[in-house]
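Quarterly update from the structural biology core.
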Amino acid sequence: MLMESDIALKGAAKVKNEVRNWIRQHRPSPGDRFMSQRELARLLDVDPMTAHKALSELTDEGVLYRVQGKGSFIGNAPREIHALNLAMALARPDLDNPVTNSNHWHIVQRVITGVMQSLKDHDTFSTIIVPPQTDPIRAEDRLQAYDAVIFTSFEEYHNIAGPILKSRKMPVIFFSDLKDADAGIKLSIGQDESVSRGISYMAENGYRRIAYIGSDQSPEKLDAYKRTLADYALPLDEKNIVLGINDQDSGARGAAILYGRGLNCDSIFVDTDFKAVGVIDYLNKQGVKVPDDVGVMGFDGMDSCINAPPYLTTVKTCHGKLIAGALDFLRQSERKKAVSHYLEIPGEVIPNKTLKVKH
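Predicted structure, tokenized:
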């Protein structure tokens, strides 16, 4: 409830006084949402135009600020950051090298590329070598020189990122599917929804016996596969699930296991593109034609797999869009202020030549 104000005040002046009293009493944080014009008019039993005038004057005075289409908020409007000085923490300098980081180099490259493509004039970006076992205090001292620090994996860097988040001294950007994880700017490729989109695409194009090959370290993908089969009333055959295929170059091994079980499927969903290429190579060597005999879909959307043989059908994840969204959000926040935000952008199906319409 708003506090009663001086009864001598009338109209917009009285409304403004009551709003100020309410702010003093409740001490909302800058950026907290304030009630709408209609809500304020109803609460104080005043004409909506009176409430509108009061809100406009409070905005002019810096007590509130407005965001088009979203309403009124407490405090001054966040100033836009016109230049960002960003750092990306890497455990070692060769993580974007396919030879020395065969399983995850493409993700590191995508994040770096996403940052570079999202920079504006006068922005700066550095990659900083910070081994996960670095003393958290020393790491924070190094990273405080930047407007925000990007971690590709929060789990790997929890020892360092955790204390920074707790101190709330600077924004931290990291990839995580956990909406309720520690504060920070959390980015998610929406593995659950992304896989579901891929399986849905296969089902809607006539595939009915869809197998799964992938890592046992990505339970979200497997759960989404099973759930989407159920959504389409498609059979779940445990013999069509091959797990433990953790390395990017082990797709052929997964295909060999499935082939040894009789290849009782009309299509295969593979949890990364590079593994999917290995699956296709193995099947071709066994005389199994893709997609005429068995369709194959990957996951990642690697240009080298989409734009060259085997011209893979895949789910393309949106690391670049996530980074761009994070930096746009950061530009609207006060420099060096810790912020909390969750952004999820599921992948998009890229139709290509390793699946066909079976209707």
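The longest helix spans residues 11-26.
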